[in-house]
Write a structure and sequence with these properties.
alpha/beta, Rossmann fold, 2 domains, seven-stranded parallel beta sheet, six-stranded parallel beta sheet, 13 strands, glycosyltransferase activity, Glyco_trans_4-like_N, Glycosyl transferase, group 1, transferase
């Protein structure tokens, strides 16, 4: 890479938190190799952490809730201005609105871009007018990126089947965004008698939190000392966000322990016997990759993303989506295994993640793509 003109990479998302949480290793690798990394996202508490890593931060207003044409056009116009002023060599867009409006903005500013679909989420789960509009916008916007990345085969198949890709030859499959295998090293299961389950993630109904709470009630009726924890931010900017009142009610009932949120989830994973994610749909959930890397068995829904990480019966158990009874059945099955059985699942999970989801493989994929599209070698 030329010493006189460092590579300039922009990462654009609807939250700075997601950039910091999910692309920490990528940023570290890019900065270490001399690239200038610009994060364009709404401001939140992780911005100082990104700046400490060496990123340049640029604020962006993105309305995650609703489909206000005025607000969305404002996002589009702001991105065009940013791209023309910053002149990045390559832009990576993440999440729905940056993918749609950012892809168009990059084309207008004559800046090459890549769209990364991090999970189809709310839009594809709901059958609504907003979902229909979003699909039409995807179909229009995705003619502009140089490549469109998908984190699992199901999402790629959905876009292909619904003819949302103007250039199917530009679609690429990236198996998740990887996990740092050294940072998330295996640790022994806790020694306590009471089984501890934890759900880690943004507190959204679409993550299956309602089913988790209902399943906790069912399991605790049979195993009263079983503990069920929630770890993650409340009140996030998402149509599926869970409010404080619901969580307070569950805590008051004694069915749930709410742990707040944490930058470092490792102590919480280490203190749990099993990590649970009854999500309605995912990209490739990082929380499950991290849990498996640390040797924790998993109970998750049999949906895109989750089933990419969990080998049913080998590294954990899969349950039916939106089905608290099915979830409770698998949680009871996990309890019945005992510590040795759970440890065996966790050990196989670590092996699977190490072979399929090593973050270093993902970083290498970024490096190869950056070189092919810009000519820069990192």
């Amino acid at each position: 890479m030329s010493a006189t003109s460092p590579l300039r990479i922009a990462l654009v998302c609807n939250t700075a938190w997601a950039i910091y949480t999910y692309r920490h290793g990528l940023i570290r690798a890019l900065v270490a190799r001399g690239a200038e990394v610009i994060v364009i996202a709404p401001h939140d508490r992780t911005v100082p952490l990104l700046e400490q890593m060496g990123c340049r931060y640029v604020a962006l207003a993105v309305a995650s809730k609703g489909t206000s044409p005025r607000e969305d056009l404002g996002t589009l116009a702001a991105l065009v201005r940013h791209y023309r002023a910053l002149k990045p060599d390559l832009v990576f867009h993440y999440t729905i609105k940056p993918n749609i409006y950012g892809s168009v903005a990059a084309w207008l500013a004559r800046v090459p871009s890549i769209a990364v679909t991090t999970g189809l989420g709310y839009v594809f789960i709901q059958k609504s007018r907003a979902a229909s509009v979003a699909k039409r916008l995807y179909r229009f916007a995705f003619r502009f990126p140089r490549e469109v990345w998908f984190l699992n085969r199901d999402d790629l198949a959905t876009f292909t089947d619904e003819q949302l890709l103007a250039h199917p030859d530009r679609a690429r499959l990236l198996h998740g965004e990887g996990v740092d295998l050294e940072q998330f090293a295996p640790v022994p299961l806790p020694a306590g008698d009471a089984p501890v389950f934890i759900l880690i993630g943004r507190l959204l109904w679409d993550k299956g939190v309602r089913e988790y709470v209902e399943a906790a009630r069912i399991v605790r009726a049979r195993v009263p000392n079983a503990r069920f924890q929630l770890l993650g931010p409340l009140g996030v900017d998402n149509p599926s966000a869970i409010g404080r009142a619901d969580v307070d009610a569950w805590v008051g009932e004694g069915v749930i322990e709410y742990l707040g949120e944490a930058h470092d989830v490792r102590p919480h994973i280490a203190a749990a016997d099993c990590v649970v994610l009854p999500s309605y749909r995912e990209g490739v959930p990082r929380t499950l990759m991290e849990a498996s890397a640390m040797g924790r068995p998993i109970v998750a829904t049999d949906v895109p993303g989750c089933r990419d990480v969990v080998a049913d019966g080998e590294t954990g158990f899969l349950c039916r989506v939106r089905d608290s009874a099915s979830l409770a059945e698998q949680l009871n099955r996990m309890i019945a295994l005992g510590p040795e059985g759970r440890a065996a699942l966790g050990e196989r999970g670590r092996h699977k993640v190490a072979s399929e989801f090593d973050e270093q493989q993902v970083v290498e994929r970024y490096r190869e793509t950056i070189h092919s599209l810009t000519g820069f070698t990192l």
